[in-house]
Amino acid sequence: MKILLLYILFINILSFALMFIDKIKAIRRKWRITEKTLLSVSFIGGSLGSYLAMIFFRHKTNHFKFKYGLPLMLILHCILFFILNNKIV
C-alpha cells in the first residue's frame, strides 16, 4: 500500500509540474509538451495533479480533452484506488 501511495504522489507531482512547464512555454511561445504526453501522464495516475494544475494555472481549460477528460480520469482513478485499497487491506 505504501508503494502505491508513493507512486500516486510522484506521478501527480510530475503531472502538475509538466502542466506548469507547458504553461510557461506557451507564454514564451517556445517548444511545448505534447497533449499526448500530458494526457498519458494523467492516464497512468496523474489526473489529480493535472486537473489541479489546469485550474490553478488556467491552462488547457478550453480544450475538450482536458476540460472533460481529466475529471473523468480522476473519478475513475478514485474508484480504482478504493477498489485496490479494499483488496490490499
Automatic annotation (TrEMBL):
The keyword Transmembrane helix applies. It holds the Pfam family DUF1294. The chain crosses the membrane at residues 6-25, 37-56, 68-85. InterPro entries: Cold_shock_CspA, DUF1294. GO terms for molecular function: nucleic acid binding. It comes from the Bacteria. Keywords: Membrane, Transmembrane, Transmembrane helix. This is DUF1294 domain-containing protein. It comes from Clostridium lentum. The lineage of its organism: Bacteria, Bacillati, Bacillota, Clostridia, Eubacteriales.
